[in-house]
């Protein structure tokens, strides 16, 4: 694999080829990755995979027209032909008055912060297999588990470089490790399944495989013999496994593209009291070892922490340079992109900060509620905020978990849900988007 300086220089060479071909502006990305994975089921090795990929992408501008081309070759000798092809495509494309590179004055400069994203540890297939076996064995050892969907272990490394014709050239190397297990409990006609998994940048930070497996088994057995609660209105509590999905709906509604197209239910919410006082939703791209950490965004802008919601008030949209031009605002440094794609706004490490009550106190704060641990389907209207999804979880009475529940639907409107939600204090930073246990005081619950 190339070094970071070599990858950045390679991307800059492709940009130079574009300028020589006649482009008015250009940016280029280089992506190199390798990954390995292994899975086992019922104690037997089931699958082994290893992949390596190389991708070069050039986004080229001819005035207000643009085109993007990709290649799997890192050979500089082919860059001229790639640039010529991109220019010919751009000259056939429609004009876009908002398209273009980021303002050079806003580009990141100097040395990027070391976010500690790369673990040079090599996890051989034997180690990945050992972890997968331990995870499955621990899951199957839980009383009541009757079958297995399997367990897996994975590891990988990636190197991504970005260069622009305005003078930006940087590369970032990162690593990832993972382990998961999924099992089945019960007998024919009364089967339930669940899983547990964990991903991390560093192998040493990965949860022990037996802990992952035990959690998968216990979660599965707890779902046996589900009941169907009576339909009606009641409090709904979102477990951290699913509470982050509410942040996903929030983010989709505050991206610049949705606001510019007027397709967001939060169209007029900027500067208003969207959540209860005290609620903070923070985007932190500079978290060391974060799964979505980045010093620079997909356009080369320096990234900084931002409270999208402060004391319950919506403070900002998430905007790329194109979004910002259309909305008449400054870009926010939230451009993300795949190697072969165009920039699109999105968060880095997003979190809803913890509240004052413990999880136990939050569960006990209402006499009866539904604790949701799984969501099914995508029944959310991004224009109106209407929310309706299949769910499973547990009945909570007097703060105690009672019978499992399944085949229910929970419904409401996201604006009302945001305005009334209360957060517990049990926030754990384990994914790219994290939230603690969340209580919505009133939602409609219907049995299937």
Report on this structure.
- Belongs to the peptidase U62 family.
- Residues 231-446 form the Metalloprotease TldD/E C-terminal domain.
- This is TldD/PmbA family protein.
- Residues 27-90 form the Metalloprotease TldD/E N-terminal domain.
- The protein has 448 residues and is α+β, with helices and mostly antiparallel strands.
- The protein folds into three domains: 4-221, 2-Layer Sandwich (PmbA/TldD fold); 227-245 and 354-447, no CATH class; 261-351, no CATH class.
- The protein has helices at residues 4-21, 79-90, 125-140, 209-222, 240-254, 256-261, 321-327, 359-364, 414-420; strands spanning 25-41, 44-62, 65-71, 145-164, 169-185, 192-200, 232-238, 281-283, 306-310, 313-314, 335-336, 344-345, 350-352, 368-376, 386-397, 400-413, 422-423, 433-434, 438-447.
- Strands 3-2-1-4-5-6 form a six-stranded antiparallel β-sheet. The protein has a five-stranded mixed beta barrel with strand order 7-14-15-16-19.
- The termini are far apart.
Text of the CATH class of the largest domain = Alpha Beta
- How far from one another are the termini? 53 Å
Number of beta strands: 19
Give a short account of the largest sheet.
6 strands, antiparallel
- What percent of the residues sit in helical stretches (DSSP H or I)? 10-25%
CATH architecture annotation of the largest domain: 2-Layer Sandwich
Strand proportion, as a percent range, falls in 35-45%
Overall average residue pLDDT: 96
* Structural class designation: alpha+beta
Count every helix, treating DSSP H or I runs of 4 or more residues as helices.
9
Q: Compute the gyration radius: what is it?
A: 24 Å
CATH superfamily of the largest domain: PmbA/TldD superfamily
Backbone shape: globular
Give me the side-by-side strand order of the main sheet. Answer: 3-2-1-4-5-6
* CATH topology value of the largest domain: PmbA/TldD fold
């Amino acid at each position: 694999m190339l070094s970071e300086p070599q990858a950045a220089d390679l991307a800059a060479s492709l940009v130079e080829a574009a300028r020589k071909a006649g482009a008015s502006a250009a940016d280029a990305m280089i992506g190199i990755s390798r990954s390995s994975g292994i899975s086992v089921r019922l104690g037997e090795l089931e699958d082994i995979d290893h992949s390596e990929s190389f991708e070069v992408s050039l986004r080229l501008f001819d005035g207000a027209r643009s085109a993007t081309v990709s290649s799997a070759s890192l050979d500089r000798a082919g860059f001229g032909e790639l640039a010529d092809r991109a220019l010919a495509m751009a000259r056939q494309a429609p004009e876009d008055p908002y398209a273009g590179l980021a303002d050079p004055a806003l580009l990141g400069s100097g040395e990027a912060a070391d976010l500690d994203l790369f673990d040079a540890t090599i996890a051989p297939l034997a180690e990945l297999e050992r972890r997968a076996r331990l995870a499955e064995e621990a899951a199957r050892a839980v009383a009541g588990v009757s079958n297995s969907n399997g367990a897996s272990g994975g590891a990988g490394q990636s190197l991504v470089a970005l260069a622009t014709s305005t003078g930006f050239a940087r590369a970032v190397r990162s690593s990832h490790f993972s382990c998961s297990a999924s099992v089945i409990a019960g007998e024919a006609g009364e089967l339930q399944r669940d899983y547990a998994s964990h991903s991390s940048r560093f192998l040493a930070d990965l949860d022990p495989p037996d802990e992952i497996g035990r959690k998968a088994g216990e979660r599965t057995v707890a779902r046996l013999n589900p009941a169907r609660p009576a339909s009606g209105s009641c409090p709904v509590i979102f477990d951290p496994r699913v509470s982050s999905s509410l942040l996903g709906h929030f983010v989709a509604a505050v991206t610049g593209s949705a606001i510019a197209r007027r397709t967001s239910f939060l169209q007029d919410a900027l500067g208003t009291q969207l959540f209860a006082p005290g609620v903070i939703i923070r985007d932190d791209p500079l978290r060391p070892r974060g799964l979505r950490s980045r010093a620079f965004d997909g356009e080369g802008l320096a990234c900084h922490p931002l409270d999208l919601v402060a004391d319950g008030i919506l403070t900002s949209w998430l905007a790329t340079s194109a979004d910002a031009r259309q909305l008449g605002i400054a870009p926010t440094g939230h451009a993300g992109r795949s190697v072969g794609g165009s920039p699109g706004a999105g968060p880095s490490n997003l979190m809803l900060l913890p509240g004052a009550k413990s999880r136990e106190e939050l569960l006990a704060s209402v006499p009866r509620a539904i604790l949701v641990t799984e969501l099914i389907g995508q029944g959310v209207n991004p224009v109106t905020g209407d929310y309706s999804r299949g769910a499973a979880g547990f009945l909570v009475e007097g703060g105690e978990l009672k019978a499992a529940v399944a085949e229910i639907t929970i419904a409401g409107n996201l604006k009302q849900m945001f305005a009334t939600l209360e957060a517990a204090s049990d926030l754990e930073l384990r994914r790219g988007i994290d939230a603690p246990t969340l209580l919505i005081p009133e939602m409609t619950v219907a049995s299937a």
